[in-house]
């Protein structure tokens, strides 16, 4: 429940989740000399172990039986696992190949891509401000393409893969930790098979570069699941509009790392393209906040009107309330291993 008492720790959890995702470019280079594919496979394998421990701590297993009886949702989870594999793989390769700035652009334009996918695939109708934001975003891609001398394909692959991932997860409607567990289960055997093949052919770095390197690779599971648990704790405590604003922390930190720490080039035309993206996001954020404010005001008006109608007819008997109404719990039980329940189905920036 989004009360003042909950919002303060919720903001801490939110900053923690998006902050870790923003700083994760510092982590992937630590895994060298492992290549992007080996890192990706370790991420898949160890993530399953971490989420299994988290689910055991919170004792949340009932969803597995329900999911097994719904083949369509299982198929959608296979699709989401495939899409996030592309996203993870490209991101890891981009960071370790010196393209942190271009990767950050992908997560800046992700909200615009999500809106575009909603129009194309879900036939959603956009408000004028949303159309303006999308138009400015497209202009930004053109400007940045001119600066790069080619389409910023890393940014576009990251944005579209993550936008598609969010769309599929919306259809699946499964909590963040549960969906990661299901996706990790789908990916586990192919990833483990690839790692065993690497070991058999002498291409694995897991056992050949010492215990420290092996520990860094194994920690990929924590780096993947940890922020998601924090995000889940934030999502049930703060409004979605607040989470929407917090999400920009991730690409801002990634851009800052790319420029200040990794010393990637930022010629004027690239700054111009990023500036256009920020204008588009500012318009999008302003429109979202304005719409949320109007929705809240309308809700208050409707409640006041209902109260006036109820008090205007004192002689009319009101139907008795049911003796016992059992409302579904807003929170799942949380154990000692996790700060709180996982998020509702919301796509999160990842790296």
* Helix-strand topology string: HHHHHHHHHHHHHH
* Structural class computed from helices and strand pairing: mainly alpha
The geometry reads as: globular
Radius of gyration using CA atoms only: 23 Å
Percent of residues in helices: over 70%
Number of helices: 14
Quick summary:
This protein is mostly helical. It is 72% helix and 0% strand. The protein has 14 helices and no strands.
List the helices and strands and how they pair.
Layout lengths: L3 H20 L12 H23 L3 H7 L2 H26 L3 H9 L1 H13 L5 H21 L4 H20 L3 H25 L9 H9 L1 H16 L4 H7 L2 H13 L6 H45 L39
Q: Your description of this structure?
A:
The protein is mostly helical. The chain has 14 helices and no strands. It has helices at residues 4-23, 36-58, 62-68, 71-96, 100-108, 110-122, 128-148, 153-172, 176-200, 210-218, 220-235, 240-246, 249-261, 268-312. Helix 2 crosses helix 9, helix 4 (71-96) runs antiparallel to helix 8 and helix 7 packs antiparallel against helix 14 (268-312). The longest helix has 45 residues, at 268-312. Mean pLDDT is 82; it is low at 321-347.
Give structural attributes.
72% helix, globular, mainly alpha, 351 residues
């Amino acid at each position: 429940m989004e009360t003042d008492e909950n919002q303060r720790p919720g903001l801490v959890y939110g900053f923690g989740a998006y902050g870790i995702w923003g700083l994760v470019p510092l982590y992937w280079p630590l895994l060298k000399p492992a290549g992007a594919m080996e890192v990706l496979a370790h991420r898949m394998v160890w993530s399953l172990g971490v989420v299994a421990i988290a689910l055991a701590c919170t004792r949340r297993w009932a969803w597995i039986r329900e999911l097994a009886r719904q083949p369509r949702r299982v198929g959608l989870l296979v699709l989401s696992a495939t899409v996030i594999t592309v996203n993870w793989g490209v991101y890891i390769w981009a960071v370790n190949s010196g393209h942190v700035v271009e990767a950050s652009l992908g997560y800046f334009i992700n909200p615009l891509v999500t809106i575009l996918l909603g129009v194309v695939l879900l036939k959603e109708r956009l408000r004028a401000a949303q159309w303006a934001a999308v138009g400015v975003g497209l202009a930004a891609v053109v400007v940045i393409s001119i600066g790069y001398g080619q389409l910023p394909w890393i940014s576009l692959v990251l944005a579209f893969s993550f936008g598609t991932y969010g769309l599929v997860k919306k259809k699946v409607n499964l909590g963040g930790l549960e969906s990661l567990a299901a996706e990790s289960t789908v990916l586990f055997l192919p990833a483990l098979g690839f790692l065993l093949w690497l070991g058999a052919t002498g291409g694995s770095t897991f056992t050949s570069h010492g215990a420290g390197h092996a520990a860094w690779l194994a920690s990929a599971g924590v780096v993947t699941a940890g922020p998601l648990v924090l995000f889940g704790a934030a999502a049930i405590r703060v409004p979605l509009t607040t989470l929407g604003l917090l999400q920009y922390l991730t690409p801002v930190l990634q851009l800052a790392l790319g420029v200040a720490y990794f010393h990637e080039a930022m010629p004027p035309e690239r700054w111009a393209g990023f500036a256009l993206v920020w204008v588009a996001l500012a318009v999008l954020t302003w429109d979202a906040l304005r719409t949320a404010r109007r929705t809240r005001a309308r809700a208050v008006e409707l409640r006041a009107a209902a109260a006036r109608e109820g008090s205007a007819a004192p002689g009319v008997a009101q139907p008795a309330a049911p003796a016992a109404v059992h409302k579904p719990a807003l929170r799942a039980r949380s154990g000692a291993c996790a700060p709180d329940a996982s998020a509702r189905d919301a796509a999160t920036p990842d790296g």
